[in-house]
Design brief:
The chain is of the alpha/beta class. The chain contains 11 helices and 14 strands. The strands form 3 sheets. Strands 3-4-5-6-9-10-11-12-13-14 form a 10-stranded mixed beta sheet, sandwiched between helices. It binds S-adenosyl-L-homocysteine.
Length: about 350
């Protein structure tokens, strides 16, 4: 890929018109090109209402921007599809599509790898390779939509990577995906998951984009959290909770706390009790995720009775709580696992 060439998929509709004007063309050409991009064209040659001379000019100054499906696996037990996408520089990322009766949710990656180092997560084992550009996050959705022949209704930024560690591209992605003549996916249908990068949570809150945020808690005790999430060395739980309250104040959105339950590590009454103390009275909800064991670590799922006890305790104490269903467990459910298997094969 030629670095100086502008990637058209990175532009909003009005930026596209500005770009066309900048290269000496009429504004309406920008609208035409924009709509071709969302019709899924991969090259300028497919844009048949654009004069050949302009197509040639575009070739020299820009690219459409495409990622390619490298592998697709379809679950036999539920309606989940897992994709590996090949990026222009040869990197591979993972995307998951979950089809329900009335919606299609896509779980996108925001980085190639991750540098947050959570002990139980497969995406972080080889560290961070690079940030994804906004259009590379966007194109995961465009390509799933095209492949399944169905409109994507919901997005979760819960694939590989830490979206708030790739702040500018994440914000641009949120803007692109929200464009009325583009994918037109409303902020309320988007959930961004973060391990709790407090400074950027505050920056996000100040932008007042009414998306949902999910915050990975995984332990209500700083010392325990540090053992499984290195980010806890930088930000304490009380910093994270303060940032969550600020986000609620700015956006009026309910926070989801993700809590991956690991046998013998964070699944006892002691943790449940502390969670109730921490979250009492807050506009929030707890999502319990029985850990998806990864080959590289010996973390195990708690027995079902522990999971249910934990849930019941929170429920009894008026903390809204759900258990996350594991989707596509036959096709490497936990994030980053499929990519690793593929790379190492
Ligand atoms: N960087 C973001 C997105 C990570 S993936 C974040 O940290 O929130 C979404 C959720 O899955 C996070 O809560 C993450 O901690 C959790 N997760 C990662 N690997 C997991 C595994 N093997 N089992 C259960 N949950 C896992």
């Amino acid at each position: 890929m030629c670095k100086e060439r502008i990637v058209l998929k990175n532009l909003t509709k009005s930026e596209m018109s500005d770009f066309l004007v900048d290269i000496g063309e009429k504004k309406f050409r920008g609208n035409q090109i924009y709509s071709w991009i969302y019709k899924g064209v991969k090259s300028f040659d497919e844009m048949n209402n654009i004069p050949k001379s302009l197509r040639e000019k575009l070739e020299t100054s820009s690219i459409v921007g495409n990622i390619e499906i490298d592998l697709k696996l379809k679950s036999k037990i539920d309606n989940t599809s897992k994709y590996l996408f090949l990026l222009n520089d040869g990197n591979i990322i993972e995307t998951v599509a979950m089809e329900y009766k009335d919606r299609l949710t896509v779980c996108v990656s925001s980085q190639v790898g991750c540098r947050m180092g959570c002990r139980f997560c497969a995406s972080t084992i080889d560290g961070l390779s690079r940030n994804l550009e906004a259009w590379e996050i966007l194109d995961q959705i465009i390509k799933v939509q095209e492949d399944l022949g169905k409109r994507v209704s919901n997005i979760v930024m819960m694939g590989s990577g830490e979206p708030l560690d790739n702040f500018e591209n994440t914000i641009r992605f949120l803007k692109l995906v929200n464009e009325e003549d583009g994918l037109n996916i409303g902020n309320r249908h988007i959930t961004l998951s973060t391990c709790g990068l407090v400074d950027n949570m505050i920056k996000l809150a100040d932008l007042k984009i009414p998306i949902n945020i999910a915050v990975s808690l995984h332990s209500p005790f700083d010392e325990e959290r540090k053992k499984i999430m290195p980010v806890a060395n930088k930000y304490s739980i009380s910093d994270v909770i303060e940032a969550c309250k600020y986000f609620i104040k700015q956006t009026n959105r309910r926070i989801t706390f993700e809590y991956s339950l690991i046998k013998g590590i964070n699944d006892s009454d002691k943790e449940a009790k502390r969670i109730v103390e921490l979250l009492r009275g807050m506009l929030c909800h707890v999502n319990l995720i029985p850990i998806n064991p990864i080959e590289e670590r010996n973390f195990e799922k708690p027995d079902m009775v522990y999971i249910n006890n934990f849930k019941n305790y929170l429920e009894k104490n008026n903390i809204p709580v759900t258990i996350r269903n594991s989707m596509g467990s036959d096709i490497s459910g936990a994030c980053g696992q499929l990519r690793r298997k593929h790379q190492n094969s």
